[in-house]
Backbone:
């Protein structure tokens, strides 16, 4: 292979750094109008009065949409369900007078300019009848219940039934630890705010209006489906385009309310409309839910874990049962005979939570892996040794299946060696550097390695170039680049002659980008379609007059350097561009669906693994924590592009530092409202917070997960970091801090 | 954001005239705070009067050894100015601890003095806030008040429903150093020129939390003058915050000392992030004068400085944190 495995530079890099790459709110058309959202201010109750008269009086204002005058939309809940909707009744913007959460959109002002819309929005008067609300998870833990079942269970399995008697085993264990963990809500906050530009293309077929929608989304097909269902459009009336996404982290997995509002306004006004949210409004939809966890571990003196309990309660909204996989990971990592894993949710007067990078995984991992660290100390065992002692060779949570591949031991070995772990003094508070305490901590990480079905198209163009497309997204991860590499290698073409396109509902259907499954899923589809196109080209060549391939089978040829060649006699060759002539001068295209063989994959538990090693400095007098260096060793199957892969893992590690030390959406429960709703007060790391980060990809071959052997990297870089940092803080200070984020006041008091 | 007009006068008289004829006009320097406040619907000027063409630039030495910082000089120019760096390294260090390079490139010295609080409740127009909407109450009291004041709020103001209660802090870093250096703010207005000692420039909330400072209506800041004494040998600015840059101080300390051997002969300690203005207490500073630079003496000063501090729940940790910061800063300044 020429390109797969090589550090190919981002094919979209030039367009991004020169500003040529356009994002949803940057597509301009003549006559564009601008919508500005008025956000509600109470957590629960009813709107008793909305007065838009002053807003409507502002020159340039076209309309103010509220629940009182909004156009008709679909009646049934099912129409509002996007492809990532949890069980329940999805939120409907401007549906009625009911307020379900603070920050809910209550009006849309549409005007000829953005500035006029924004000003007029400030003149809309909304009066409410407030009702008592509940937004505190910790105050409502007794309301926790089992989540409803639904489609979401497919990718988010519920915990397995308890096995053995964990309580009994715990009581009998000579060594045990019990830990309690709380982390607050977090908001994704991608750099690009949510925005939708709806271009009204006028009435086209049979007098039906057509809309071209530029949406910030991790799945254009999901946005299209949502809009079609709600507004009663057919597929040929709505095209959703999303070529670039300025960060997603899960926030774009579901259509956000600006999409609904922009389409509603465009349809009603028969005008093109753009609606963008403000940074403050980025705190008015999905988020990582506040979660409370308890872990108990019991072990025999030799370090064998004999009892494992992990219980989690996450917050959700009153209208949907959002769930995460929080506790199952503990069972996957440690095959303990007496285990109880429990997960429940508590509905609160909030918007539904939404998958945020490593949803549930980073939450649960933080709890189990900090508890493991505490257990290691109680046992006087090295934390790595304890993990090796209890290394799981099979996944009992899905019925004792072996792992399709699991090079976690190698992660421990290489990570520890790179970090210098063998020099660690097991005692806390033992290392000082100047006047700061130094601590070393580690943790294991695990994430899913799924491959979903997807479609792709490949075209050999009349110019002899290869164009491949699929309606997936690239949220900055490098999808454009790695798909170009796969296509180029599969058909043996120079990479400059290959172009990959995505983010358009006119392209073959693909799942949204998320769950770390895009490289595997779309990669498989691209390989499949290029292989199928190759077969088609072979047939064309074979049929041609006097073909040198007349007697050959497809298996006997290979594609390289823009040519098809006989394997046994490479001098027998035909340039791919000649196939266009053989096709009557027309391009040659193929569309394929890739589906991994479920008979093969379902017998295995398929996961990525990691080991994170972290050094922190803690200024004990002032409570400040600095992550001075970190090493992540990753086992994630084949690495398609070490440059973009490393970038993915580094990003995940920075997220880990962020989650461990800084991120926290603070709510004032008296008002049920997030208060630090801007990037000045909702902290994420700056360059000065990030020091030496090192990434190791351990070699891992996996013939099971998919034909490419690719497992995905979107989340695994994050999972182990918060636990490793918390463990390092303990090692530095001797203080166990089980809540996140570890701010200086938590270190001091 | 409301519609507004824009003027860019080239003389102080014309600038003052703009304000005289339009009571809802506002001066704009770098706009690094005002524009945000307008976007968030907190400030509603109908006319912006750009001060950047006024002859208020430059950094110049005055005959008596003082240094004059022009009101329209940017924070970045000031921090990197050779005279400031060599004569007032404390100020240079403090400015660079604030904001980001991009913001410092825009923000002016005069404008820095008029930064408004970062109180969450002040910024959220759906919330009661006596500073934003006098008489509406103070939602920060009893709310999420991790970043709020512990000094100068007076215990009588502790009621969230009080029409004058306010526990907001003043967010500037630069002003903390200016307080320690005892800068003098030169202003001019309808009643002519006057000098305001830095300690008197910003004010405590008292009964008018909507007023951040003592500038009179239609006055303009011309310059900030630094007295000759620059504490070049023994100084430090320590800023504690939730990330390493681009975050407002939970607690900050500016220290300037004069030493004779290991004995402190003059001491200035100014705190940021703890009150409605940069906080100084001469009595605590006096405790250090004539004393040896020891942790014990630092602790005595710190305890004295924080005596009477009041916590409001989430911010109560700041009382002890401020003492720790003072001890550390004094230690750093004497090393």
Residues:
């Amino acid at each position: 292979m020429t390109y797969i495995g090589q550090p190919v530079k981002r094919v979209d890099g030039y367009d991004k750094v020169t500003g040529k790459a356009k994002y949803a709110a940057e597509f301009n058309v003549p006559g564009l109008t601008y919508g500005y959202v008025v956000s509600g201010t109470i957590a629960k109750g009813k709107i008793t009065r909305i007065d838009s008269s002053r807003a409507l009086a502002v020159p340039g204002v076209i309309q103010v949409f509220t629940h009182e005058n909004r156009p008709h939309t679909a009646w049934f809940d099912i129409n509002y369900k996007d492809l990532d909707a949890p069980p329940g009744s999805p939120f409907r913007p401007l549906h009625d007078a009911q307020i379900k959460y603070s920050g809910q959109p209550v009006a849309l002002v549409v005007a000829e300019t953005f500035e006029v819309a924004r000003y007029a929005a400030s003149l809309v008067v909304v009066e409410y009848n407030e009702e008592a609300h509940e937004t505190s998870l910790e105050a409502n833990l007794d309301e926790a219940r089992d989540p409803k079942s639904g489609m979401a269970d497919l990718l988010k399995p519920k915990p397995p039934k308890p096995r053995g008697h964990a309580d009994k085993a715990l009581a009998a264990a000579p060594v045990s630890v019990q830990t309690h963990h709380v982390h607050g809500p977090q908001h994704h906050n991608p750099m690009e705010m949510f925005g939708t530009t709806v271009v009204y293309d006028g009435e086209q077929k049979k007098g039906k209006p057509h809309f071209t929608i530029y949406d910030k989304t991790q799945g254009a097909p999901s946005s299209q489906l949502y809009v079609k269902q709600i507004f009663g459009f057919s597929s040929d009336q709505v095209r959703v385009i999303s070529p670039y996404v300025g960060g997603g982290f899960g926030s774009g997995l579901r259509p956000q309310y600006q999409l609904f509002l922009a389409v509603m306004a465009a349809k009603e006004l028969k005008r093109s409309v753009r609606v963008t949210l403000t940074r403050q409004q980025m705190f008015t939809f999905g988020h990582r839910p506040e979660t409370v966890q308890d872990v108990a571990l019991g072990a025999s003196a030799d370090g064998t874990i004999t009892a494992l309990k992990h219980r989690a309660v996450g917050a959700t909204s009153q209208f949907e049962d959002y769930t995460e996989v929080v506790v199952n990971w503990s069972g996957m990592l440690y095959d303990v005979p007496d285990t109880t894993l429990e997960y429940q949710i508590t509905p609160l007067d909030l918007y539904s939570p939404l998958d945020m990078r490593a949803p549930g995984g980073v939450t649960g991992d933080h709890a189990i892996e900090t508890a493991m660290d505490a257990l290691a100390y109680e046992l006087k065992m090295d934390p790595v040794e304890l993990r090796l002692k209890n290394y799981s060779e099979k996944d009992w949570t899905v019925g004792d299946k072996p792992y399709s591949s699991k090079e976690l031991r190698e992660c421990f070995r290489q990570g520890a060696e790179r970090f210098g772990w063998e020099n660690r003094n097991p005692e806390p508070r033992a290392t000082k550097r100047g006047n700061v305490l130094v601590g070393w901590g580690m943790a294991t990480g695990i994430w899913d390695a799924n491959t979903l079905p997807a479609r792709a198209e490949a075209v050999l163009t009349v110019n002899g170039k290869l164009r491949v497309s699929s309606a997936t997204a690239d949220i900055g991860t490098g999808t454009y680049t790695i798909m170009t590499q796969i296509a180029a290698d599969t058909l043996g073409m120079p990479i400059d002659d290959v172009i990959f396109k995505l983010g358009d509902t006119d392209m073959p259907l693909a799942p949204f980008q998320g769950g770390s499954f895009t490289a595997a899923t779309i990669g498989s589809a691209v390989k499949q379609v290029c292989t199928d196109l190759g077969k088609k080209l072979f047939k064309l060549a074979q049929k041609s007059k006097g073909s040198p391939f007349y007697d050959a089978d497809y298996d006997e040829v290979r594609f390289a350097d823009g040519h098809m060649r006989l394997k046994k006699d490479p001098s027998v060759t035909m340039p791919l561009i000649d196939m266009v002539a053989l096709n009557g001068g027309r391009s040659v295209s193929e569309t394929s669906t890739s589906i991994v063989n479920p008979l093969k994959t379902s017998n295995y538990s398929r996961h990525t693994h990691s080991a994170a090693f972290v050094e922190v400095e803690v200024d004990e007098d002032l409570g400040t924590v600095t992550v001075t260096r970190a090493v992540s060793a990753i086992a994630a199957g084949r690495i398609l592009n070490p440059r973009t892969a490393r970038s993915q893992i580094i990003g995940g590690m920075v997220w880990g530092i962020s989650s461990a030390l800084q991120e926290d959406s603070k709510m004032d429960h008296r008002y049920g409202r997030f208060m630090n709703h801007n990037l000045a007060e909702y902290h994420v790391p700056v360059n000065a917070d990030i020091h030496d980060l090192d990434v190791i990809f351990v070699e891992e071959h996996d013939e099971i997960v998919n034909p490419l052997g690719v497992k995905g990297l979107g989340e695994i870089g994050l999972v182990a970091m918060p636990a490793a940092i918390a463990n390092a803080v303990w090692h530095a200070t001797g203080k166990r801090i089980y809540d996140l984020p570890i701010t200086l006041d938590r270190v001091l008091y | 954001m409301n519609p507004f007009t824009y003027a860019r006068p080239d003389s102080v008289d014309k600038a003052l005239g703009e304000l005289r004829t339009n009571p809802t006009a506002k001066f704009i320097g770098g706009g690094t705070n005002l524009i945000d406040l307008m976007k968030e619907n907190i400030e509603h000027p109908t006319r912006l009067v750009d001060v950047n063409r006024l002859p208020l630039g430059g950094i110049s030495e005055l005959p008596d050894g003082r240094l004059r910082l022009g009101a329209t000089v940017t924070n970045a120019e000031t921090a990197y100015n050779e005279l400031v760096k060599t004569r007032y390294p404390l100020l240079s260090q403090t400015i660079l601890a604030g904001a980001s390079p991009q913001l410092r490139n825009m923000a002016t010295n005069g404008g820095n003095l008029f930064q408004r609080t970062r109180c969450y409740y002040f910024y959220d127009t759906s919330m009661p806030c006596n500073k934003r909407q006098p008489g509406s109450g103070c939602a920060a009291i009893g709310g999420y008040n991790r970043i709020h004041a512990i000094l100068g709020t007076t215990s009588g103001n502790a009621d969230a429903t009080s029409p004058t209660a306010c526990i907001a802090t003043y967010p500037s870093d630069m002003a903390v150093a200016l307080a320690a250096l005892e800068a003098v703010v030169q202003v001019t207005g309808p009643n002519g020129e006057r000098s305001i000692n830095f300690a008197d420039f910003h004010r405590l909330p008292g009964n008018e939390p909507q007023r951040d400072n003592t500038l009179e209506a239609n006055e303009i800041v011309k310059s900030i003058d630094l007295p000759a004494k620059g504490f070049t040998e023994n100084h430090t600015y320590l800023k504690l915050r939730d990330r390493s840059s681009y975050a407002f101080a939970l607690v900050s300390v500016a220290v300037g000392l004069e030493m004779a051997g290991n004995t402190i002969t003059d001491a200035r300690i100014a705190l940021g992030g703890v009150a409605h203005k940069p906080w100084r207490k001469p009595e605590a500073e006096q405790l250090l004068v004539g004393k040896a630079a020891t942790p014990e003496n630092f602790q005595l000063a710190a305890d004295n400085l924080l005596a009477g501090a009041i916590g409001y729940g989430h911010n109560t940790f700041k009382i002890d944190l401020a003492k720790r910061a003072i001890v550390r800063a004094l230690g750093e300044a004497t090393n």
Observations:
- The longest helix of chain B spans residues 317-334.
- Chain B has 13 helices and eleven strands.
- The radius of gyration of chain B is 20 Å.
